[in-house]
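User: Could you check the structure of this?
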Amino acid sequence: MGTTLDSGSQPQEDGGARLLTFHLRKSWTRFGPRVGRTTLEALREECTTGISTDETSSVTFDTPNILVGTSRGVVPHLSRDHCNSADAIRWINVPFESFLEQSPPVPTLQKGPDPLHSFLGFDKRKHIVSLCLRDPMDTREMPPNGNTYVSALCMRGVRKITISDWREYVYELKPDVMFALNDTPFTPPPYSQKRVTKSIERSISWLADMLRPLKRSVLPCSPPSTPGRLSQHPLNVFVSMAGGTSIPAREAFAYSLSEEPYGPDLEAVKPIKRLDDGVVGYSFHVATLRGSVPKPLGPRRRNQPNGVFQQESPNMPLQDAGKLLEVPTPENGDVCTSPPLPSSIAESPVSPDIALLLQASLRHLPEEKLRLVTGVRSPLEMLKLIRDVGADIFDADLAIAAANVGVALDFMFPLSPDHGPSEEGKKKDMGHNLYDHVYAHQYGRLSDCLAGAAESQSQFPAPLPICPCIACSPCSPASHILHSRVDVQSHEGETDRNGNVMYGLPRSRGYLHHLLHTHEMSAHAMLVAHNLAVLDRFLSGVRDLLWGGDGNDIGEGEDRVTRFAVEVNRFEGVYDESMEVLCVAKKCWREVDLARGKGRLGREKEKQASIEAGGI
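Assistant: Sure, the predicted structure tokens are below.
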């Protein structure tokens, strides 16, 4: 099932592994909304007394929650100090393909107990750092994968990363969480049954290879003794659920995870009895399931607007799974065999929606494992996946992409009683396009739903939650670098008599409008921090409603599920699901971005001529 044991994947000496546990605090149905708690804790190697936890380096957060993506290990527009001070950033994902232009990749040269944390500068007491090979939001067309390698994209072109290479990188960098390789086709659909079958077989084979034990175990003790830990492997492995848009194919992949291997396959993954026993969670990359054709391979920068906000409905049809048998697939060698797929894999005449696809993958798998979803298009889609699938973690690319085009997100959940559409028959935008000139002289805070820490709650009709971002609640650092004795006078009055930090007034929309039009980088930094805080507060409202922390006595069990479904419908009726504000902001961003540099004078003359010709 796997390749031969590679001698180069021996782990370095460290001070102990960090195991991810997930406790399902409240769940009503298999695919209904649920609340859990995720903990990453360091384990000490004490075999005589069992495994003890080191609470000083543990990271804990409640779910549903967010995962923040990076570009070359950097959260777009934010510094390390911003990341360490932001409460919304707890789980950080690093696509490793951006480091593959060098051989060996530069991060693998970092030594010490926590190579990835040390190289990227993240605080292991606050952040979970995960490692994946490919950026889950990059859906550009790519060369096909092989039986023993995956095509990855770096700044110098496409690289072929073998299974043993990925295994070696993981054991050298020691990420808190790693994503097993999967064979996702990035070529124009539809895909033949042979291609779908090959994708499932490769993904299963590559997962089994990653779960192979080392000659020398990372932990001398067995992980299952930790409460809430279902995985029997020292690595925290997430598996991407394969099968594309075919429900039978997804069920076949889930069956391959839960069945017990036999013969050489069983010996290769011992002491694991089933592949599912070696994973801590399931990931779903819905960006690859959309009905759009993969874009041609070309330059792409993550800190610029991407195609996730194209003008279309979030409920757009998925890739057509019908008539797959008529589409030929080039031969690409033989792969290891696995249980045959159902004959109905290519007979689905109608493409199911995303919720049904995710349910098909999870139907026969344990409920007590994390469910991670990337590529969501809107907050409403998050709510629907929580309601219909029970998703736990969402990527925050929505917030970062909105900040790229100058949009300050502004929404909340659940809605207050007086919340309604802005005009008769028109839904509210989920943010403010600060490139628009209507904001040039608006001096209010960025969000109508959240208040700044320095603002008095008495000025609002009802108390508003506090936005802790650097734009809404700016504050000075607790300590300052003094270059002379007179510098002390510059920092007087920034703390009260009790030593508490004094917050400043929120940054206004007009101020951010000015920064955006003058191409100031601080504008995007404040917008990213604000949008992440809004998204974090949005999911905090979901948890409070389901868990009972909202202060409303609405009963337990089905009463809270019913209330949640009602609030989702209210949210859908108030806010614009198509996120049209982002499409308009993207056009404004392009106009401002072009209004500088070489050729600006010629463009301005053409623009003025067109205005005069139109009689404006």
